[in-house]
Design brief:
Number of helices: 3
Radius of gyration: 18 Å
Number of strands: 4
Structural class: alpha/beta
Strand order of the largest sheet: 1-2
Order of helices and strands: EEHEHEH
Distance between the termini: 50 Å
Largest sheet: 2 strands, parallel
Amino acid sequence: AQLSDCELILRVVDPQPEPFPLPNGRYLVARPPFTLASEKALFAELDIDFVVAKNSGAKGSYTKILASREMDITVLIIDRPEQPGAPRVATVGDALMWVEQL
């Protein structure tokens, strides 16, 4: 409700089955990876002045942060949710060993 005077753009990887939930927004379908140059061009074309990004931990998703910094665009990063207390492994080999122990 407090963003009713803003245009909201949510970049998604796949087309969404439902329309954007707010009248002042839209989906932008695009598939990574994105280059620094392409992010800067997109931000300039869309006149982006604020970026909200989730901390996905993916190295390739950092390009939008770099572009924002270079263009002096404010960024809000949403922390990753707390992970459940489940077994974790670092490699496929470790996963196979874990499965064998079940």
